[in-house]
Amino acid sequence: MNVARRDGWLQRLNGDPRPWLLEESDPAVRAATLVRLMGRTRSDPEVRAARDRAMQTDPIKGILDAQHPEGYWVKPGPGYGPKYRGTVWSFMFLEQLGVDPADERVRAAAEYVLAWTPTAAGGLGCSGGARVPPPSSVLHCLNGNLLRALISFGFLDDPRVTAAVEWQARAITGEGVERWHRSGTSGPGLRCGVNDDRPCAWGAVKALRGLAAIPPRRRTALVRRAIGIGVEFLLSRDPSIADYPMPIGDAEPSRLWFRPGFPSGYSADVVQVLEVLAELGHARHPKLLPAVEWLLGLQDESGRWRNQYAYSRKTAVPIEDQGRTSKWVTLRACTVLAAADGGFRDR
After folding, report:
1. Whole-structure pTM value
2. Domain containing 116 — which CATH number?
């Protein structure tokens, strides 16, 4: 999601965080900031230089150094375990960090994921050890996260990715699907067995992120219908309250909704709702105003945000520290605030 250089949103901040985000000591953040907040293209020389440095700097370097030559992390197989160090997690986190998709190690990881996660249903499944994950293991959240990474890395035209896109769209619309699996995605309308057969907002966010990675001109009518259903669902509640359907017995929304963090796994926070809706052209929807105000209220005296869910000591290498002021969370916040101020998107 690229946003304009209009700076009206900066007047809502307690300070300008952009010089901090552009520091050369954090090249991955710098590259992303140049694109998202400064209006640069990915082919811009400064962006390319920052990305090249990021490939030689932790956490990207550390994650890639931990990869097995065959393309997997920790142990061979489908890669859902161990959380959050196994193959699918490291793969998804690399995409969020802005890794260079042309790197041969990234290509090897993508091929490994595509060799182990496709199911007979078409979606990409999670499994601790099965050679072919069962259709009942396909979840909106994992499928969406993997689609986001695979499409961002240039694999949209791979038949296995095409099948996963088709599964994702039909799992939302319900079109042409005769059988659902209650242990996984259990029916149309973003329902999920893990959420007691109710629509899952975390799954909706991840599914939409996956479909949003498809360039608009490449989206089929089915995909557009699925996106419309997903957007309508996320806008059916106030994201700042996040009282989306919950598992039976839960009286209040998960606290994770209100703990902006980085990187992002299967759970979503309020900021990610704003991110995906902004990416799909709804950044200025009136129903998002309370969430925008909530987000503004979390900034510190310098116009920066803390990482409240950092997966500390859980990832292959440390990415950020729990509770500390965070460049990545600050960039996430600024991106959606700039979009709400009337930014542009450039695909």
Report:
1. 0.94
2. 1.50.10.20
